[in-house]
């Protein structure tokens, strides 16, 4: 048996991990290079994977001397079993709040999962935001929903 990003494995089980910390740094670096003030969108800080991505995000902002506050992190408390409409309504609220947090567009969002990225894309379209002009998005992971997402 092979596990991916699983922290505790039994003897004889192989665990493959990705560099979530480095991925967090790279995503944040790209958003900064695009001229945005990056915000991080998390669903749960309880996940070790998300914690590493958060750590990378903060480290890259510090390296860039970015004036970071916790307000740049949107912690969503959505459950996996919530409906798509509920998740996307929540994400529309996040996007509507970006001007108060980071100022004028373009906004940079780093979503720690492909599902959150898809929800951001859908919410952006429903608010008539232009991905590329108004909103820069970096997602993480390559779950099946990613192949159905488009800017």
Automatic annotation (TrEMBL):
Keywords from the named record: DNA-binding, Repressor, Transcription, Transcription regulation
Protein origin, superkingdom: Bacteria
Record field: transmembrane: none
One Pfam family, short name: Peripla_BP_3
Residues covered by the Transcriptional regulator LacI/GalR-like sensor domain: 39-151
GO molecular function, one term: transcription cis-regulatory region binding
UniProt-listed PANTHER family: LACI-RELATED TRANSCRIPTIONAL REPRESSOR, RIBOSE OPERON REPRESSOR
Protein name: Substrate-binding domain-containing protein
